[in-house]
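Every protein is a chain of amino acids, and every chain bends into a shape of its own. The fold becomes a row of whole numbers, each drawn from a learned catalogue of backbone shapes. The protein below has been through that process, and both of its lines are reproduced in full.
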Amino acid sequence: MRTLISTAFVSLDGVVEAPGGESDYRNAGWTFKDVEFLPEAYEIKGQEQSEATAMIFGRVSYEGFAPVWPAMEEFAEYKDMPKYVVSTTLPESSLVDGWGPTTILRSLDDVAALKETEGGPIIMHGSVRLHHSLSDAGLIDRYHLMVFPVLLGAGERLFSDTDKDTQKLKLVEHKAYANGIQKVIYDVVR
């Protein structure tokens, strides 16, 4: 079974909306405002690229990343990697050429079936609504979180407010950086 990894920049109060500034959210770009850039705090991003064997997105995140990431040097290892987009509405004609093989999955059952295939880890960036659905369905196996020392108040949250049974996590790695960012990696306990 393949490991599905959710990776996210998250504020201390759980907000994940527009960390890089890509929307009209009032705090857009919050990961780069008033937080000193320390390259060592972002080493996990290179590690993720070298360890992942596929990527999965929701439609909105795919449409945001696909026009930009293929040409970015810092995401070069993702270029030819297989991609999966979970969407009931995205037409095949909207897939971006030149960004590796891309498959549209139409349901959570399709995601569960993908996890049963042979291969290495599948990584998910952004994709808040998809994250909620996959987490609530118990399909995420690991969380790579970079927790930023900011409180944003309003904004889309990493986890849904669905009333569900307790899901236990095991801390497998953590590190705090001089700029206040914390890296925490959790495995879901099954």
